[in-house]
Amino acid sequence: ADGDGCDTRQEVLIAESLTPATVGAGCSIEGGTWYSPADGDTLTNPASVDINHLVPLKEAWASGAHTWTPERRRAFANDLTDERTLQAVSAGANRQQGENDPGTWLPADREAACQFVADWVAIKASWGLSVGEAERDAIELTLENCGERMGTVTPVSQGT
Length: 160
Fold this sequence. Notes:
The chain is α+β, with helices and mostly antiparallel strands. The protein has helices spanning 8-16, 57-62, 70-77, 91-97, 110-126, 133-146; strands at 22-23, 29-31, 34-36, 41-43, 49-53, 86-90.
């Protein structure tokens, strides 16, 4: 995206490393430290880090991306403008979430679940993606349970 020869995965690994990422020839990521919020793992081997679409591509497709131009779908899939869209996570956390929305999967840690849902809502809103009824109910319940941690949150309306 910025013309430095790094692909989206490499850009996310560089941006999210808690220590300066070690970058080798051809933008190969050789070291760094990444925190996986969904499961609390700290990772130091870049090969063990997955790049997760917080709102999975299949979910985005079902929520309106199927009507987008190929350019807009590509922009969503490689969005480096919003740090919430793509996240460095453990392979296990990425597999656990899979294609699930907050109605069928949340991080086990309460604080991580609150942040996940807040980020989910922000991403869906910024890209104009719809929210299904069961998904909306799960979002509202989670945010209610987050209480003071999240402050006042406007509920998500179905279809917005």
